[in-house]
Amino acid sequence: MNLESTIGSLVAQVIDSLYGLKLDASQIQLQKTKREFEGELTVVIFPFVKAARKSPEQTGQEIGEFLLKHNPIVSGFNVIKGFLNLSISQSYWLETLKEIHSTVDYGKTTAKEDAETMMIEYSSPNTNKPLHLGHIRNNLLGYSISEIQKANGWKVVKTNIVNDRGIHICKSMLAWKLFGNAETPESTGMKGDHLVGKYYVVFDKAYKAEIAELMGKGATEEEAKKTAPLILEAQKMLLAWENDDKEVRQLWEMMNAWVYAGFDVTYKQLGVDFDKIYYESETYLDGKEKVEEGLANGVLYRREDGSVWADLTADGLDEKLLLRSDGTSVYMTQDIGTAKLRYDDYNIKKMVYVVGNEQDYHFKVLSIVLDKLGFEWGKDLVHFSYGMVELPEGKMKSREGTVVDADDLMTEMIDTARETSQELGKLDNCTPEEIERIARMVGLGSLKYFMLKVDPRKSMTFNPKESIDFNGNTGPFIQYTHARIKSVLRKAKDQGIDFSTISDINLTISEKESYLVQLLTEFPSIIKLAGEEFSPALVANYIYDLVKEYNQFYHDFSILKEENLQLKQFRLVLSESVAAIIKTGMGLLGIEVPERM
RNA sequence: GGUUUCGUAGUUCAAUGGAUAGAACAAGUGUUUCCUAAACACUAGAUCUGGGUUCGAUUCCCAGCGAGACCA
Fold first, then answer.
1. Do the beta carbons of residue A152 and residue A383 sit within 8 Å?
2. What three-state secondary structure class fits A486?
3. Parallel, antiparallel, or unpaired for β A308-311 and A319-323?
4. Residues A48-56: contacts with CB within 8 Å, 24+ apart?
5. Chain B nucleotides with an atom closer than 7 Å to a protein C-beta
6. How distant is C1' of B58 from CA of A34, in Å?
7. Which of A71, A385, A467, A584 is the one with CA 20 to 30 A from A536?
8. In sequence order, what E strands does A135-174 have?
9. Residue A474, CB, less than 7 Å from strand B?
10. Domains and CATH numbers, chain A
C-alpha cells in the first residue's frame, strides 16, 4: 500500500468518526506539500469544514492530532489556512527506498499471460516522399505510447499501415518514367525514398507549367487542373494499376521497394519498429467488400450517380462518402478494410490510431461507420490525436520548400552532439565507435526529448534555425546526470563499497534526500497516468523534475567522501535508484542513456 | 459560414479547482585545489478581454477578440 492510500483511508476514518462525514479514501484531496512549507504530504481541509462546523484551521488541527497519535508514519504536522501539512518519518522513507532499490523494473507492470491486447497504429506514411518532421512526432509518440502501455501490463502490437497505392505514387512513377533517365538509388547514391520524392516534385513542377500554359490559352484554373495532360496520364496509370497492368505494376513495385529500403533506414535511425505492417494495396479491396455488405444490409445507401454514402445525420454529423461513383475507394474505405483484417489477425481489445488532429473528424466518422457495419469494437477505438508541428512562420509547406526532412534533421542533431562532445573534451579516451555511439544517443536523445516533453494534444513550434538545446530541460541534461551517477557508482565499486542495500534504517537524512525518495515513490503512478492519458510528456516532465532535484543533491552533498559509512551507503543506493528510474523512464520515451558522456 | 482545438515571461514549454502561477532558453552575475561545470546558485520578467459558478478559477460555464484545423 502506498503512502497516499494509507494516509487517505486514515483521514477518511478520522472525518467519519469526528464529523460523521463518510467519504471514500479516493475522495480525500492529497497533494505533495509545496516546497516553502514544512512537511511532505498535504491534506486539503476545505471540503470538510462544512461538516466539521469549525474553522479550517481548527479542523486541520484536530485531524492532524489524530493522525499523529494513530500512525507512526506521521511524525509531525502543521496547519496553514486550510492545508494540513504532514511530516513523514525518516525511517518510512528509508524503508521505502530499500524496497524500491530491490525491485526489478520498478514502476513497470509486466504483462501477464492472459493480458489483453492493444494494437497501436502509427507512422502510416505515403510512399511518394520521405518522412519529415511531422512524421517524427508521430513515430516518437507511437513508439513511446506503446512502451508506456506495455509498462502498464498490456500486450502491445505495434502496427503500420503503408499507403502504397493511389494517385500520389502514380505521379512519382509517371515523372520518373518521363524524365527519370532510368535513375536508380544505386546510380545516384540517393536514398530510395528521397529519389522517389524528387520525382514527385518533378511531377508537380511540370504539372504546374502545363496548368499555366492552359490558363494562358484562356482556360480557367479549375479546367486547367482537370485537363492538363500529365494529370490525365497519371489517372490513366492509376486505372491501369487497378486493372493489374503488368508494366505499371512492375514499375510500382520497383519504386515502392526503393522507398521501403529508405524508410527502413529512417526507422532504424529513429529507433522505432513495428510488429506487423499492413499495406493499403492489400486491404482496400476488403474495405470495398465490407461497404458492399453494408449496402446490402441497408446500413449504407447508393446515390443515383452510383456513389455509396453513410448517413450520419442522426449522430449529429453529415453524410459521408465511402465509394466514389466510379467505384474507387476513399481513405475511409481503406480504414474499414484494414480494421477488418487486423481483427481477424489478432484478438484485439483496444485499437489505437496515432494520427494528427487534422483527422479528428475522420476518426469520429470511422468510429460510427465501423459500429454501423457491425464491428462491436468500432465505438471504442481510440484516436490518439496529436497536434501539428509548426515552424515559426506556420505550417510546413512542401511547395515552399519549408519541409524539414527527417533524415537531415537526425544527422544534424548527431553531428552537433559529436562536436559538442569534442569541444568539451569529454570523450578523449574513447574509441571512435564509442564516440559515435554516444553522439548518436545524445543527438537523438535531444531530438526525441524535445518532441516528447510537450503535451501531445497541443501543437508545437520547432525552429530549425535555432538548433535544439543540450542544456536545461533537455534530453542530454538527463543523460548527463545518468552518466554522472554511473561514474560515481563505478568508483564506489572500485573502492569495494557495498551498496547492495541499506543496513541502517535509523539514519538521519536531510530534507533533500527524503524529498528525492518521495519523488521516486511517484514513478509508478506517473506511468499509470501516462498510459491512461496517452501522454509521454508526463513521463518526460517527471524525469526532468527528478533529475533537477538530484543534481542539486549531487552538488550540495558528497557521496564518496562522506565519512559516515552508513550514510555513504544510503546515498549510493539512492543514486543507483535514481539512475535506474532515469533509465526506465527514458526507455519509455525511446531514449537511450549512456554510461558516460 | 458551420464544427472543433488552442491563447501563460522576449522565446519554447509546465501547473487532478487549491497556498506566493513552475522550468528552460535568451539577458546579467557568481561557483572548479572537492564524486563529470552538458552542472549548481543568484537577479529581472507572464495567465488575451469582459462577465458568471465557487470558500478558492490559468483550469469549469457564457460572450467577445485572436490563431490553427476540419467540413463545405
1. no
2. helix
3. antiparallel
4. A48/A15, A48/A19, A48/A21, A49/A82, A51/A15, A51/A19, A51/A20, A51/A21, A52/A15, A52/A18, A52/A19, A52/A21, A53/A19, A56/A81, A56/A82
5. 4-7, 11-16, 18-20, 23-26, 34-41, 55-56, 68-71
6. 18
7. A467
8. 155-162
9. yes
10. 3-88 (3.30.1360.70), 165-274 (no CATH), 406-588 (1.10.730.10)
Sheet holding A301-302, edge to edge: A301-302, A308-311, A319-323
A33 CB and strand B closer than 7 A: yes
How far is Cα A336 from Cα A375, in angstroms, rounded to an integer?
10
Distance, in Å, from the CA atom of A344 to the CA atom of A175, rounded to the nearest integer, reads 38
Query: Which tens digit of pLDDT belongs to each residue from A544-587?
Result: 999 999 999 999 999 999 999 999 999 999 999 999 999 999 99
Comparing every residue's Cα with the C1' atom of nucleotide B18, the nearest one is A44
Nearest residue to B14 via alpha carbon and C1': A541
Q: Is the CB of A50 under 7 A from strand B?
A: no
Q: Does the CB of A111 fall within 7 Å of any strand B atom?
A: no
- Name the CA dihedral angle for A192, A195, A199, A202, rounded to a multiple of 10 degrees: 160
Please list the pLDDT of chain A residue by residue as tens digits (597 residues).
678 888 988 899 888 888 888 888 878 899 999 988 999 999 999 988 888 888 899 999 999 999 999 889 999 999 998 899 999 999 999 999 999 999 999 999 998 999 999 999 999 999 999 999 999 999 999 999 999 999 999 999 999 999 999 999 999 999 999 999 999 999 999 999 999 999 999 999 999 999 999 999 999 888 899 999 999 999 999 999 999 999 999 999 999 999 999 999 999 999 999 999 999 999 989 999 999 999 998 889 998 888 999 988 888 788 889 998 888 888 899 999 999 999 999 999 999 999 999 999 999 999 999 999 988 888 889 999 999 999 988 888 877 778 999 999 999 999 999 999 999 988 888 999 999 999 999 999 999 999 999 999 999 999 988 878 999 999 999 999 999 999 999 999 999 999 999 999 999 999 999 999 999 999 999 999 999 999 999 999 999 999 999 999 999 999 999 999 999 999 999 999 999 999 999 999 999 999 999
- For residue A83, list its beta bridge partners: A44, A80
Counting beta carbons within 10 angstroms of the beta carbon of residue A587, is it exposed (0 to 12), middle (13 to 18) or buried (19 or more)?
Answer: middle
Give me the helices (H) in A271-388, please.
280-297, 331-345, 360-372
Q: Which residues contact A375 (CB under 8 A, 6 or more apart)?
A: A339, A340, A343
CA A249, CA A77: separation in Å to the nearest integer? 76
Closest nucleotide relative to residue A316's CA, C1' based: B3
Tens digits of per-residue pLDDT, A466-496? 878 999 999 999 999 999 999 999 999 999 9
The answer to whether A103 CB is within 7 Å of strand B is: no
